[in-house]
Design a protein that fits this description.
The chain is of the alpha/beta class and about 650 residues long. It is built from 21 helices and 17 strands. The relative contact order is 0.09. Bound molecules: alpha-D-glucopyranuronic acid. Homodimer.
Length: about 650
Amino acid sequence: TDTGYELWLNYKPVQDLPLKQSYIQLYSQVNLPQCKYDEVIAEELKGCLKATLGITPRFISNTRASIQMSYCKDKSLGMEGYLIRNNNNKIILQAYSDAGFLYGTFHLIRLIQCEYPLDRLNIREVPALDYRQLNHWDDLNGNIERGYAGKTLWKWDELPERLDERYTDYARANASIGINGVVLNNVNADPRILRRDYLKKVSALAHILRKYNIRIYLAANFAAPMKPSSTPDVMKKWGGVGELDTANPLDPNVQEWWNTKVDEIYSLIPDFGGFLVKANSEGMPGPQDYHCTHAEGANVLARALKPHGGIVIWRTFVYNPQIDKDRIKRSYKEFLPLDGKFDENVILQAKNGALDFQPIEPAQPLFGAMKQTSLMPELQITQEYIGQSTYLVYLAPMWKEFLNFDTYCKGAGSNITKIITGKVYPTKYRAMAGVANTGDSNNWTGHHFAQANWFAFGRLAWNPKETIEKITSEWIKSTWNCDRSAERVITQMMMPTWNNYARSHSPYSLGLTTQVSCHYRAGFDIRANKEWKIDNKGIGTNRTFNGTDYVSQYFPTNCTHFNDIKQCPELYLLCFHYVPWNHLMKSGDTFEKEFVESLKQGVQQVEENIQLWRSIREKIDSRRFEEVMNCLLKEQQDAKAFYESAVGFFSAYLPHK
Ligand code: GCU
């Protein structure tokens, strides 16, 4: 039975017999050069071809093999790119470097899973971003912050001696979608991860992940050099690792501590990627505790890592109330003045929106504004504010909206994709991170459909320009092995979910509408007139010139548009404006009317999805069918409760009750 454990590597017999014949002919012998990944490539191909075609490929090293893998001199393929062609009934896979064979193999596998014809293959794939990472918010005690799929995958008690078989399957899944870096632990970082006993455990994991071209990074606590008794209160729940009285980045002993620690890490993990740091954010220690800047702090770690080729990923998620009355403006105000002050091996990591992983937000204005600093987006795959593991919400459309967001930093067309791929400023690093939605639940992500978000994240990190249609269709085919008509139904279920979730849970980018700590249930009453204004004349936050002036953090065209209630994109209306209930919308209806309609969309969406899912019951294996149905039924209850709470709350303010 299908449990979902196999994810999108759910190899099943190819149904179309003529096609199957042609695959058998082309995949039966493989000429695989010796390379770093040849063992896992052979393993994966054997498993896949046995299950899909019923054959065991022969590995032969001559030109007669039907699949020819070989190195080529095309340097522009880089360390990870590949070419796939069909040449006189032979499949040619070429790469400039070893990892190209690994990724190319997963592409060859995908061709079968998606039943693509092989006659006119002409594929050239080079990842647009070099760093494609998952960030795990996993604590050392096994919990996952904002995780909704069980406990952590990392079995710290058993490591390094025992290696859970899931580690390999985790690595396979990531490699198949191009993920090449993982941060193992929570950004609210327990310093003990840097202790030698933990580093040995990390090293054991690195040993498995590197077989799939995945590097390990660790979230480092800025106060790690300190002895526990000297650390700030937030850290009392953790043990310590250092022995100093300070973490002052200007103190030579502190610098020395980091240098020594980093040397130790590399002695155990030679391909260690680097550190991810959350500093001076939500109580976490940081350089500002010593009147130093984020740059001064980041650079100390960067200098320790530099000789080994490691990087520092420094988060920009800060919102110190002293910086500005409006929380949304703080990160930009703190980081923009530091542009150019970071060492070259530092990347800043910014959430897609300036607030906090809301269902919908305009893009963080630092994108396009930072000219001399590499800036990478942090997307959230785990659905903290977006229905957790109960709601079916497909996030690819949200991420596309973000990637297509035009910053106008160098005129029209300066969208986020261009910025992060280095087409606007020649910044050194091209990178993207996603906060993982994995856990030890049998299907990895809790909701079977949440697997699609992991998949889509990887594919967009490889190629931000990939179409959602292609990604979605490939996910469905390789996960559900269903026929075309069921695929259409599943697509129909997934595609509108983000829009409808956002419209019903955070209408017109209202933002912060849930309870304060759980971020799932409605919390309009607690948030009202704290996070946004509401009265019987209107709702929203005035962030225009005569409000908090957030609009001025955007480049002129956006600034002018966002500032003007008539030109502001309606989907962002409440983020930038306090909107009168009687304001006229583009549709000709009042804002009040549209707002009320908008709230209903969550319940409507799930009701439709229940019908659609029922309609394909015969085409889906029973276990996964039932499990998804149970989620949908729970979603239906919770969406109703959310809606009722919204209506109950807003009716007190709406002119037409
Ligand atoms: C959110 C989230 C926290 C997390 C923080 C962060 O606020 O609720 O759990 O630690 O983001 O990204 O640092």
